[in-house]
Amino acid sequence: MAVNVHFTGQTTENLSRIELLAWVNRTLLSEFKKVEELCTGAAYCQLMDVLFPGCLALRRVKFCTNVEHDFLNNLRMFQNALNQMKVNKAVPIDRLAKGRFQDNFEFLQWFKKFYDANYDGKEYDPQMARNNAPMGYGTPSTLRPTQRLNTGPARPVSSGRPVKRAGDTNGSAGRKQAEEKMGAAGGGVGDAAGAQAAGGEKTNDRISALSAEINELAMQMQNVEMSREYYFNKLVLIENYINEQPEDSQDGLCAKVKEIMYAST
């Protein structure tokens, strides 16, 4: 049976959105970029598996999706797991599935406290548990290259035996004809083919390096945007607090804060 926790948003112990998202991605080796993306419900399902192995069927979880129908199914499985563990918490499934920040942020704050109260420190391999499925918001084709590992179709395995073509009496006959044609064409063809292959490899390496650089810059930009939103929201809270105070009760500090906030430079 799980340890129930009581949560209230009026506490200084709550983590920021950046810290919470980093905790989820670090724990599950996932690639969620925003708190809103936890609306998929997949992270909650696997975090429950971390706490209580076997409390739900991970094979039924849609780990990488952007379809609301999948969100609802994942969140219902999560709710059933909570019920099974006697947790007195109603999951706001419909609101979470809409992907609004505030709903997902508040619920994630509660779940982090619930996780801390129930985690026993055991080792857990999240990628192996979900059979190397990618985890993030979207589909495998929309994820970053690092997220698409182990998601491509398996390559056919060659038997290592030569293929006998129609008209050939055996494999050596086909090879002999090929050698005669290569000899007639001259050694220059082989040199040109080798140079072309080498050039193709260099091009592919360059493309891979540039793609990795683009992905890294995109992540840095995302982190900057998250930080900007976080501190902007803090300023809005400060502004609202000051403006709610009666004019006659505002001291010099409030006036100075408003002067700094409303300054043009």
TrEMBL record:
UniProt keyword Metal-binding, yes or no: no
Domain of life of the source: Eukaryota
Compositional bias of kind Polar residues: 141-150
UniProt xrefs under PROSITE patterns: CH, EB1_C
InterPro entries reported for this sequence: CH_dom, CH_dom_sf, EB1_C, EB1_C_sf, MAPRE
Pfam families, per database record: CH, EB1
GO cellular component, one term: microtubule
Residue ranges, annotated region (Disordered): 141-202
Residue span(s) of domain EB1 C-terminal: 199-265
Subcellular location: Cytoplasm, Cytoskeleton
GO biological process: cell division
Record-annotated Calponin-homology (CH) domain positions: 14-116
A molecular function (GO) term: microtubule binding
Keywords: Cell cycle, Cell division, Cytoplasm, Cytoskeleton, Microtubule, Mitosis
Family note: Belongs to the MAPRE family.
Designated name of the protein: Microtubule-associated protein RP/EB family member 1
Lineage: Eukaryota, Metazoa, Ecdysozoa, Arthropoda, Hexapoda
